[in-house]
Design goal:
With 631 residues, the chain is mainly beta. The chain is built from 8 helices and 38 strands. The chain has a 6-stranded mixed beta sheet with strand order 3-13-12-16-17-11, with no helix packed on it. The longest helix has 12 residues, at 333-344. Residues 1-60 and 91-112 have low confidence and may be disordered.
């Protein structure tokens, strides 16, 4: 019967002061490592306070095995946590039983299968790293043995660098520490990039990797016993990898490592990879990402769990994204300079970090769960729809359309920040794009929290321009505008006719918003309970009528199109998705000309789980094929 990590360590304390290597190897003496300072704690809404990486230095070697056994008391081991900057996992502090995680929201794509990590006995070259910080808080990470001329190097994350560190490769929870098959290896010297900032969310998080030289004993080295993994430059942002790590006991009762074979993608804005694989709880920090792993238990490593925020999104431990999403720095010149330093016992300074320009990427589901409002429009003059996004933190971005416009190709080619976190956009409550003048690019209409209604005549990569106040704050009317969309609902060719669904279920049309503002109102429907169930609306051209159409997503998952909207009202309701469809989980719906043509008949959806997909060429017969962009 397998025992837990805490029980093994407790047993080891009563089994004498000798920690023996398996296969007849001799005992190892332990040694303390440097003290880097306290691990930053997250404050809600502020992000972690980064601390610089420690200045690695050689240790004294006075730290004995008996000292180590006395130091690692059951209480200290039980309180060990992942030292990343991520929020605490619920119920896992001090070895507690975890609270039940919040269930993941239903996915937009029923056929989509998420990768999930699985427990397995482990491999000899990957193990656990125990250490304490300057405030004597206990931590554990994952680490791996790597090739070196001295046959004595291990690799982990930069945020795992701490004192009194001991590496246990191929950790076997069924055995006490003195009986571990590949021994224990005290860290003698750390090597970390001097410009790395612990658990940073800045560009320097790209440098979250570190090496350690471990002590030898009796002529035996780490690589002699556990083998050594090769290190390779990360080929690109998309790779097939196997990730291995040791999650916290609270989420891993068998106390076994987990592995996940999956495909990586880019982390938007960083020189890092990301994966979406459930089960990667705290403790996997530093775990290797193998591009190749053979039966001997060694292979080729192209990454390690770490990077932005210590290797995962800035979400509470109860959020499903916490254990699904993991990051890794890319291995490039800085990484291999540090590797060369570690092999030769040097401590050089590579200088200020100059981040390579990351390729454009929409990012992952953990990012898009934070999208609060979206609007489409030809903001940059390509003839196709760009996407304007307002995020939960109050920032706003513009994703510009790909210029080739090839069906099946990428929809967007770049991202431009219009406003940073905490900007005025945090007060936006409804948003639509529209063509308000005959010349120039499309613009936006915005309903704000206080009821003010604003038109920005033009929007481009430089921001929003030509602001007009159409309704003053606290007017007692526009606070009740629940949904808005601008379409081509009158005789002219402009998409400048504003349709509003009010909180009481009534519907109004304001024609020619660009010239007439909101002075002239035409009521299309009186207040009704039916329209209080409208969750999203979008103006498009799905049926080929003389005027534009209206798409509605209802609260029960049904989606309908009303064709040829005009001042006479709503006409010809056409069902394109049935009730109780997957569209019940559509959080944001945006209609535009995203794929291939300049006709606004494509529908882009941000789902409840953060995935993003689109349906091209929607018409009266239905939504047709779905293409996933994020997830």
């Amino acid at each position: 019967m397998r025992t837990s990590r805490m029980r093994c360590l407790l047993a080891a304390m009563t089994c004498g002061s000798l920690l023996a290597l398996g296969s007849g190897a001799t005992a190892l003496a332990a040694g303390p490592g440097p003290g880097p300072g306290p691990t930053p704690q997250k404050t809600p809404g502020t992000g972690p306070t980064p601390a610089p990486a420690p200045a690695p230095q050689e240790t004294s070697g006075s730290w004995s095995v008996a000292d180590a056994l006395r130091f690692w008391t059951p209480e200290r081991v039980a309180s060990a946590t992942d030292p990343s900057g991520r929020a605490p996992q619920p119920g896992t502090e001090a070895g507690g039983k975890p609270a039940a995680p919040k269930p993941a929201p239903p996915r937009g794509l029923a056929r989509d299968k998420r990768d999930v990590s699985t427990s397995f006995p482990g491999v000899k070259s990957v193990g656990m790293l125990f250490a304490v910080d300057r405030d004597m808080r206990s931590h554990f990470c994952s680490a791996s043995s790597v090739e070196s001329p001295g046959r004595n190097l291990m690799l982990t994350a930069g945020h795992c660098v701490n004192s009194k560190a001991v590496f246990v490769p191929g950790y076997d929870p069924a055995k006490a520490l003195k009986d571990q098959p590949y021994g224990i290896w005290p860290v003698e010297e750390w090597f970390a990039d001097k410009r790395y900032e612990r658990n940073s969310q800045k560009a320097e998080s790209d440098l979250d990797f570190a090496f350690a030289r471990v002590k030898s004993e009796g002529g035996r080295n780490l690589q002699d016993i556990a083998g050594g993994n090769a290190l390779a430059r990360t080929p690109g942002f998309t790779n097939d990898v196997t990730v291995i790590g040791y999650p916290s006991v609270g989420h891993n009762p068998q106390d076994l490592p987990v592995r996940c074979s999956t495909r990586t993608g880019p982390l938007a804005g960083y020189n890092q990879m990301r994966i979406d694989c459930a089960g990667m709880w705290g403790g996997v920090s530093g775990g290797p990402w193998f591009s190749k792993l053979d039966e001997s238990g060694t292979g080729t490593i192209v990454g390690n769990v770490g990077g932005f925020n210590g290797g995962g999104p800035d979400v509470p431990g109860s959020d499903p994204m916490y254990n699904r999403i993991s990051y890794s720095p890319m291995y490039g010149d800085r990484f291999f300079q540090l590797y060369d330093d570690a092999k030769n016992g040097r401590h050089t300074d590579a200088g200020p970090y100059q981040q390579p320009k990351p390729p454009y990427s929409l990012g992952g589901a953990e990012r898009w769960q934070q999208a609060r409002l979206t609007a489409s429009g030809d903001f940059t003059g390509t003839g196709r729809s760009d996407l304007f996004v307002v995020w939960n933190d109050g920032s706003a971005t513009l994703h510009t359309a790909a210029r080739d416009g090839k069906p099946g190709g990428p929809l967007f080619s770049g991202e431009h920040r219009v406003a940073g976190p905490g900007s005025v956009w945090k007060y936006a409550r409804a948003l639509t794009g529209g063509r308000f003048t005959a010349d120039g690019t499309d613009g936006l209409a915005v309903r704000w929290t206080d009821g003010e209604f604003t038109q920005y005549t033009h929007v481009d990569a430089g921001g929003v321009h030509d602001e007009k106040t159409l309704a003053k704050p606290k007017n007692g009317i526009w606070e009740n505008a629940k949904l808005i969309t601008a379409g081509r609902y009158t005789g002219n060719a402009l998409r400048d006719d504003l349709l509003v669904v009010w909180a009481n279920g009534s519907i109004s049309l304001y024609p020619d918003l660009g010239t007439g503002g909101v002075a002239k109102e035409t009521q299309l429907r009186r207040a009704s309970a039916t329209w209080t169930h409208a969750e999203q609306i979008g103006a498009g051209e799905f049926t080929g009528k003389q005027t534009g159409d209206l798409m509605v997503r209802w609260s029960d998952g049904e989606a309908t199109v009303y064709s040829g909207i005009d001042t006479a009202g709503l006409h010809d309701e056409i069902r394109i998705r049935p009730a109780k469809s997957a569209w019940k989980n559509a959080q944001l719906i945006t209609v535009g000309a995203f794929a291939g043509t300049t006709t606004p008949n494509d529908v882009l959806i941000r789902w409840a789980d953060g995935n993003v997909s689109y349906y091209a060429d929607v018409d009266a017969t239905g939504t047709h094929a779905e293409v996933q962009l994020v997830g």
